[in-house]
Write a structure and sequence with these properties.
The chain has five helices and 15 strands. It is of the alpha/beta class and about 350 residues long. Strands 7-8-9-6-12-15 form a six-stranded mixed beta sheet, with helices on one face. A four-stranded mixed beta sheet has the order 10-11-13-14.
């Protein structure tokens, strides 16, 4: 019996046990256990269903909120890379090797509506009837120059100072830039010459302020970039020498060119015999008169003086410097005008 009792037993509550296994005979406690199991199973099923629903909700939210932001970021990155590649192309491109092409949408401004165009250079205002010459744009062979975006340039120049220095070719480019920028300004009265001067070649300084954007575009007339002067009386000279170009000294107004953000120089058209030797102007270096110096040699010496001044006086971390090469003159033909009495 003791062995049988160890292997098979019948308890008072009707529970029948055999070798660790139990069989229910209708005990109330066992019924509660079964019910609790079914409830637990239902809860687990609900948890699983809720987890699945949460997963799809998370995916949906990610699609709605995350992907657009990610796409925007990727597009921005693509734009940055595109601009970077575009800049690299422009840097490696020879912009001087190209041709003029006809394009729609030009000119970028109407000279008649711009108060800063000299009357002598307003072709339409002076009666020119053809307009084909206004629809040309320079196109390099190896790249595309971005089209002028007036609003972008206005914002780029906000609180800046742009300075042109040179001869009449520089002045007319200065005028054109002002007129191009005025096309993007709503209140034209906010664009004015700082000294209320009319645009003329006889004034050594002209400055136009764009008050809405807090920047100025200035022009300084310096046709040789170096100083012009008369010889002192003590210096021996031939009678033909009336004045000199002091090749080792930059123009006496050069101190006004510093502290600018963009500095554009040009010279060249006055370095010809008719503007120098024919009117008695020769070259001087320090206290020495150089009567035998050629114009190309003098021009090189003047540019070396200019370059030394730039390195010494201009903060290259702030100022972007440009030196413009020769360009066509103002006039293609000469005319003899006969005035009737």
């Amino acid at each position: 019996m003791s062995v049988l009792n160890r292997s098979i037993s019948l308890n008072r509550d009707g529970s029948f046990n055999r070798r660790g296994f139990s069989v229910s005979i209708g005990s109330p406690k066992v019924t509660n256990h079964v019910r609790f199991g079914w409830v637990s199973l239902k809860i687990q099923v609900l948890v699983i269903i809720a987890s699945v629903i949460s997963f799809f909700v998370a995916i949906g939210c990610g699609y709605i909120f995350v992907l657009p932001s990610l796409s925007h970021a990727l597009l921005n990155a693509q734009g940055v890379l595109s601009d970077h590649n575009h800049n690299e192309i422009l840097t490696s491109c020879d912009v001087f090797d190209g041709s003029w092409v006809r394009v729609p949408g030009y000119p970028l401004y109407n000279a008649t509506d711009c108060p800063f165009v000299e009357k002598g250079f307003n072709c339409l205002g002076n009666g020119r009837v053809d307009t084909d010459y206004l629809s040309w744009r320079w196109k390099p062979k190896g790249c595309n120059i971005p089209r002028f975006d007036v609003r972008a340039v206005l914002e780029m120049l906000r609180s800046k100072r742009v300075v042109f220095v040179g001869d009449s070719m520089s002045r007319t480019q200065w005028e054109s830039m002002i007129c191009m920028l005025m096309a993007g300004v709503e209140d034209k009265s906010g664009v004015y010459e700082v000294n209320q001067n009319n645009i003329t070649k006889r004034i050594r300084f002209l400055g136009v302020r764009f008050s809405a954007f807090n920047f100025t575009i200035e022009f300084f007339r310096s046709v040789f970039l170096v100083q012009q002067g008369t010889l002192p009386r003590y210096m021996q000279r031939p009678r033909r020498v009336k004045s000199t170009l002091m090749l080792d000294k930059l123009d006496d107004i050069s101190h006004q060119w510093v502290n600018s953000d963009v500095l554009i120089f040009n010279t060249g058209h006055w370095w010809v015999p008719s503007k120098l030797f024919d009117i008695g102007c020769y070259f001087q270096v320090k206290r020495s008169l150089r009567l035998g110096m050629s114009i190309p040699a003098a021009f090189k010496t003047a540019l070396e003086t200019w370059a030394s001044w730039v390195e010494r006086e201009i903060d290259s971390n702030r100022t972007r410097i440009f030196f413009r090469t020769f360009e066509p003159s103002h006039w293609r033909y000469s005319y003899t005008i006969v005035m009737n009495p």
